[in-house]
Amino acid sequence: MSYTTREPFRVAHRKPATIDPVLSRNKFRGWVHEIQAINRYYRRMLKLSRVTKSYDGVAVLRDIDLSIPEGQVAVIIGASGCGKSTLLRLANGLVLPDRGTVELMGTPVTASTALALRRRMGYVIQEGGLFPHLTARGNVALMPGRLGWSSARTEARMIELAELVRLPTGALDRYPSQLSGGERQRVALMRALMLDPEILLLDEPLGALDPLIRYELQTDLKTLFTALGKTVLMVTHDLSEAGHFADEIVLLREGSIEQQGPMTALIDSPATEYVARFVRAQRSLVDGLVQRAT
Question: What stretches of the chain adopt beta strand conformation (E)?
Answer without folding.
Answer: 44-55, 58-69, 73-78, 99-104, 107-108, 121-124, 199-203, 231-235, 248-253, 256-261
